Automatic annotation (TrEMBL):
Protein name: Osteoclast-stimulating factor 1
Record carries keyword ATP-binding: no
Gene Ontology BP annotations: actin filament organization; cell migration
Function: Induces bone resorption, acting probably through a signaling cascade which results in the secretion of factor(s) enhancing osteoclast formation and activity.
Amino acid sequence: MVSVLEAVVEFDYQAQHDDELTIAIGDIISNIRKDEGGWWEGEVDGRRGLFPDNFVRDFQLSINIKINQ
């Protein structure tokens, strides 16, 4: 079983710098890396960047993967 951290956007955020993501309510952010200081890094719609952690609600998906050897 693999756990994947994702987040759903609860408030719109307009990027202020090139390394930030513009996010909209309802977007799902994946491949999240949590950082200290209130900013996380993740991907949405093929773009990767920073976003404020208090604009999202995070959740973990548990996925069963069958590997044939």
